[in-house]
Inverse folding.
């Protein structure tokens, strides 16, 4: 059964935090952003990533066997 993320559980992460969760380098993260493989939001000059976007990216990778 798929567990749905509650809105209260959604958190915005910095690029550094997102890279840590994904275990990837900053350059690879920005490469994924430019390929539209992972969604981000801009607030001012900051680029932030929701925990839901990270989960969606991981789920997509698992489905495609990457």
């Amino acid at each position: 059964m798929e567990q749905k993320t509650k809105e209260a559980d959604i958190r915005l992460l910095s690029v550094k935090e997102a890279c840590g969760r994904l275990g990837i380098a900053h350059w690879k993260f920005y490469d994924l952003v430019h390929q539209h493989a992972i969604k981000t939001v801009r607030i001012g000059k900051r680029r932030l990533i929701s925990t839901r976007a990270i989960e969606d990216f991981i789920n997509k990778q698992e489905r495609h066997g990457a």
Summary: The longest helix spans residues 51-63. DSSP finds three helices and three strands in the chain. The mean pLDDT is 88. The longest strand covers residues 46-50.
